[in-house]
Write a structure and sequence with these properties.
- The chain is mainly alpha-helical.
- The chain has two domains: about 25-90, Winged helix-like DNA-binding domain superfamily/Winged helix DNA-binding domain (Arc Repressor Mutant, subunit A); about 95-220, Up-down Bundle (Four Helix Bundle (Hemerythrin (Met), subunit A)).
- It contains nine helices and three strands; from the N terminus they run H-E-H-H-E-E-H-H-H-H-H-H.
- A three-stranded antiparallel β-sheet has the order 1-3-2.
- A hairpin with a 3-residue loop joins strand 2 (about 80) and strand 3.
- The protein starts with about 25 loop residues before the first helix and ends with a helix.
- The relative contact order is 0.13.
- InterPro entries: GntR_C, TF_FadR/GntR_C, Tscrpt_reg_HTH_GntR, WH-like_DNA-bd_sf, WH_DNA-bd_sf.
- This is DNA-binding transcriptional regulator, GntR family.
- Keywords: DNA-binding, Transcription, Transcription regulation.
- Pfam families: FCD (PF07729), GntR (PF00392).
Length: about 220
């Protein structure tokens, strides 16, 4: 009699499980962990993972895993494979360039309007957020940097008072942070250079000097 095949045969191996932090709902905890794994490459592009295997990794039932993966599928991070699980979407450099182009169309006009309307003192409110990106970059913490980077942009765009713009821009920003196929994780010098843009942008906005070239260069790269 042929040996019974493992139910997980053919699926990509998973990294060692980490203890789940006690925060938010179980689904949100799993979602956060999966997003972190996508950022760091622990769940690399093209890899296939089953719901039961992910549930075992995080020590939860299959339901919150399926719910979290369904949200990631709607975000475009994974695709559902019927009766198999989920496959991490393979992105190319062209995909990221196209996302950057759309981000420029959304964010640059807002920031240029803010540059003309916001008092110089208001930009000081964003300095702690810019400093947080610098600290995360100095530590070489890719996950913390991604969170701090998006927090800075949400606060910056939030000054315009349009939550819909913030939501659209944040979704695009998150998509831009997923690494493309074959890309190595961003190194500390790259993160530091990108973080320095935040400080330089606030300096330019406070001094009422041109910001578009700097901001365009910043959006073109999302480590």
């Amino acid at each position: 009699m042929d040996p019974v095949a493992s139910p997980h045969a053919g699926w990509a191996p998973l990294p060692a499980p980490r203890r789940m932090p006690e925060r938010l709902s179980v689904r949100e905890q799993v979602l956060d962990e999966l997003r972190d794994a996508l950022l760091t490459g622990e769940l690399p592009p093209g890899s296939v993972h089953s719901g039961p295997a992910l549930a075992a990794r995080y020590g939860v039932s299959a339901t919150p895993v399926r719910e979290a993966m369904a949200l990631l599928a709607r975000e475009g991070a994974v695709e559902v494979l019927p009766n198999r699980g989920f496959r991490v979407v393979c992105r190319t450099e062209r995909d990221l360039a196209q996302i950057a182009e759309v981000r420029m169309l959304v964010e640059i006009p807002v920031v240029l309007d803010l540059a003309r309307a916001v008092p110089a003192a208001r930009w000081d409110e964003l300095v702690p957020l810019a400093d947080a990106t610098v600290a995360a970059a100095a530590a070489g913490d890719r996950v913390s940097y991604a969170e701090a980077d998006r927090a800075f942009h949400r606060a910056l765009l939030g000054l315009a008072g349009n939550p819909h713009v913030v939501a659209v821009a944040d979704d695009l920003h998150r998509r831009a942070q997923w690494p493309p196929v074959g890309a190595a994780p961003a190194r500390r010098p790259t993160l530091r250079a990108h973080a320095a843009h935040h400080t330089a942008l606030l300096t330019a906005l406070s001094a009422a000097t041109p910001t578009e070239p700097l901001f365009r260069a910043h959006l073109a790269i999302c480590p």
